[in-house]
């Protein structure tokens, strides 16, 4: 009997242990299987099926150099400086230029254009009296300036590239600094962790970590904000999973495209391509050994080792990296010595957040939104090639900033500059402030006053039998009863009436009464239809005040209207975008050439001739007699009580519209010639 009882006790213990075992196994499976599946999902979502958020890049027009090109030294030097070229006694490296006795040597960077892949070359030429000559190539095409980007809500500036575009020294050098056992471990370096723990124990503080490049990639992609053992465990398991899905080349490629390299305002600089652009205005392959080592060094702390704000600290860190590279045979002794003796020479590329081009980019975005979705613009890495001229834009910004307040208190200004023939927009500014977020050039509609007059005379030549600018019209008082039973009596600015005068004189001297009398012969409806045929939508179209500019347009719309005159109707529409490609440089769309208007070239020539005389002995005559300008065409515009001061002027190259007024639309003491024309002249003088 006792033996049986003992056997029963043993059986009960076995049953108990089996229950505990099953319970523990079930609990483990219940807890760890969901955890494993969760981490497996994370790896697939963040790595296997991951799509980078790549901002679209917006480029200015490219600068092409050729014999006979007209370009000033100040403009050329500005372009080279903006593109990140460094002035040296001798240009020996990519991205350098020299200028000795007006003889330039330029080592270009190359660029992948739509039609060709321009390779870096050494260009030599002479610049005398603003004319380029003796160029050693048929033509030199410089890379266009990056003026901005469209970002996703993450505000990450990143442009992923294959590992083949990263210099081998950087690839091997990153491993030498961050993870020397990278090619041998399975995602987690257990020996490295043990070594780090021993070193930290003897040092009494944490001096070395044990994370691998794979773990750091996981950490960066997971965006953990707090440190914990659970986070470390997640990183380790994900790293092991990642190593099972990708080879080492793919992992280090992802790491180079993921690394955080600094901050410019609200924009985070990620990836080696953008880091090279941000700090050196180069591609990764064009970086010197010293520049590569600096970038690898500051990965540890972009703010702590900032190469401009903390130059000594950054230099010390770079040299530590170089020492490690030499010790591990990444570089040889000669490379090591040369790189260590090279001073840090960094010029931050401001194009990532430069508000100088904010107004133009707003126009580009408005036009692109009709063709591309917001997601495509913000995340799919489009390349947008535009028409803006960075030098002219800079001169325009300076002109409005430095001169608007000299005209009076509480004034604002806006301007648009385009090519006089092609209609390509070269510059646009919507305020006198360098950085402003209300683009008056694009959004503010104001009465245009006498700017409409050339089109009254053009319409008369096109629509009335036998009318020419030599024809006589009556500059005399007129009283018109409107549909509301009120009387409208336009007056000339000087309070006088000149009687019978030629149409040309009336236009040159901007006579109101003569213009209205001619307009009535034409008819309000006929004139409004003529303007609509030119592409305008006119308000208050049933009132004869339309002949004196009682309609509201933005500076951009005004410039578009006068493009008809400056181009002699060869171009009807302003354009800001040349073409758009995807991230693989495949063309997605390009600007369409506008149809020519069916206008008489004789009529257009007559109007142009009159607008030239406006600048010599008309309302804009100070352009010649005060500023000494010749061969210009233009028209002033003033509305009641000087609420709006306008000037539109052009030559064979440039068409520019300037506006001055107050945001509350109250009176100023300005006319077109005492306000907007002054800004126009100051801008034109700067070219």
Shape: elongated
- Kindly report the average pLDDT value: 89
Q: List the uncertain runs.
A: 1-5
- The CATH class of the domain at 155-351 turns out to be Mainly Alpha
Radius of gyration over alpha carbons?
34 Å
Distance between the termini: 117 Å
Q: Looking across the biggest beta sheet, what order are the strands in?
A: 11-1-15-24-25
SS field, number of helical segments: 23
Largest sheet: number of strands, sense, barrel closure? 5 strands, mixed
CATH superfamily of the domain at 155-351: Biosynthetic peptidoglycan transglycosylase-like
The overall strand count is 28
Alpha-beta classification: alpha+beta
Q: What is the CATH fold-level name of the domain at 155-351?
A: Penicillin binding protein transpeptidase fold
Report the β-strand fraction as a percent range: 15-25%
CATH architecture of the domain at 155-351: Orthogonal Bundle
Approximately how much helix is present in the residues? Answer: 40-55%
Q: What's this model, at a glance?
A:
This protein is 41% helix and 16% strand. A hairpin with a 3-residue loop joins strand 27 (644-650) and strand 28 (654-661). Residues 1-5 have low confidence and may be disordered.
């Amino acid at each position: 009997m006792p033996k049986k009882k003992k056997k029963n006790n043993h059986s009960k213990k076995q049953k108990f242990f089996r229950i505990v075992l099953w319970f523990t196994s079930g609990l483990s499976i219940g807890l760890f299987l969901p955890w494993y599946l969760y981490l497996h999902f994370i790896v697939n979502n963040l790595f296997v099926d991951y799509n980078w958020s790549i901002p679209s890049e917006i480029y200015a027009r490219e600068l092409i150099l050729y014999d006979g090109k007209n370009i000033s030294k100040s403009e050329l030097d500005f372009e080279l400086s903006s593109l990140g070229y460094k002035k040296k006694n001798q240009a020996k490296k990519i991205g350098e230029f020299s200028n000795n006795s007006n003889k330039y040597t330029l080592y270009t960077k190359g660029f992948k254009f739509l039609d060709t892949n321009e390779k870096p070359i050494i260009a030599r030429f002479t610049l005398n009296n603003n004319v380029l000559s003796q160029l050693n190539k048929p033509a030199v095409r410089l890379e266009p300036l990056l003026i901005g980007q469209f970002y996703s809500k993450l505000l990450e500036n990143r442009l992923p590239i294959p590992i083949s575009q990263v210099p081998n020294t950087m690839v091997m050098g990153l491993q030498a600094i961050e993870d020397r056992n990278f090619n041998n471990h399975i995602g987690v370096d257990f020996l490295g962790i043990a070594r780090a723990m021993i070193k930290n124990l003897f040092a009494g503080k944490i001096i070395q970590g044990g994370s691998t490049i794979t773990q750091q990639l996981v950490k960066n992609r997971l965006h953990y904000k707090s440190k914990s053992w659970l986070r470390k465990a997640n990183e380790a398991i994900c790293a092991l999973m990642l190593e099972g899905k990708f080879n080492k080349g793919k992992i280090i490629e992802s790491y180079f495209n993921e690394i955080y390299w600094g901050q410019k305002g609200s924009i985070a600089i990620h990836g080696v391509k953008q880091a090279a652009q941000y700090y050196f205005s180069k591609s990764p392959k064009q970086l010197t050994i010293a520049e590569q080592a600096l970038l690898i060094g500051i990965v540890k702390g972009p703010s702590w080792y900032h190469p401009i704000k903390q130059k000594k600290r950054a230099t010390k860190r770079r040299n530590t990296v170089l020492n490690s590279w030499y010790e591990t045979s990444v570089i040889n002794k000669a490379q090591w010595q040369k790189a260590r003796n090279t001073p840090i020479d960094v010029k931050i590329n401001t194009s990532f957040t430069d508000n100088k081009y904010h107004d133009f980019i707003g126009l580009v975005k408005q036009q692109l939104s009709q063709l591309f979705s917001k997601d495509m613009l913000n995340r799919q890495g489009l390349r947008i090639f535009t028409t803006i001229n960075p030098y002219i834009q800079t001169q325009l910004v300076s002109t409005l900033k430095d001169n608007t307040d000299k005209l009076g208190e509480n004034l604002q200004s806006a301007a648009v500059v385009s090519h006089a023939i092609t209609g390509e927009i070269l510059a646009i500014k919507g305020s006198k402030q360098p950085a402003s977020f209300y683009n008056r050039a694009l959004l503010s509609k104001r009465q245009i006053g006498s700017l409409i007059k050339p089109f009254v005379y053009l319409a008369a030549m096109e629509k009335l039998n036998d009318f020419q600018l030599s024809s006589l019209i009556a500059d005399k008082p007129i009283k018109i009863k409107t549909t509301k039973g009120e009387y409208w009596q336009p007056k000339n600015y000087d309070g006088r009436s000149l009687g019978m005068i030629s149409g040309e004189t009336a236009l040159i001297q901007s006579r109101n009464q003569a213009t209205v009398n001619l307009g009535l012969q034409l008819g309000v409806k006929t004139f409004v239809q003529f303007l609509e045929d030119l592409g305008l939508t006119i308000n208050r179209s049933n009132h004869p005040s339309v002949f004196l500019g009682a309609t509201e347009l933005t500076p951009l719309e005004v410039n578009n209207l006068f493009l008809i005159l400056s181009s002699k109707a060869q171009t009807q529409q302003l354009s800001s975008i040349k073409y758009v490609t995807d991230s693989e440089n495949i063309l997605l769309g390009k600007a369409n050439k506008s149809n020519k208007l069916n206008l008489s070239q004789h009529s257009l020539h007559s109007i142009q001739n009159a607008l030239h005389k406006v600048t010599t002995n008309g309302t804009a005559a100070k352009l010649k007699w005060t500023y000494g300008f010749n061969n210009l065409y233009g028209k002033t515009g003033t509305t009641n009580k000087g609420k709006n001061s306008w000037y539109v002027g052009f030559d064979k190259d440039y068409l520019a519209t300037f506006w001055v007024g107050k945001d509350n639309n109250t009176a100023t003491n300005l006319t077109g010639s005492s306000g907007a024309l002054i800004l126009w002249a100051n801008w034109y003088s700067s070219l």
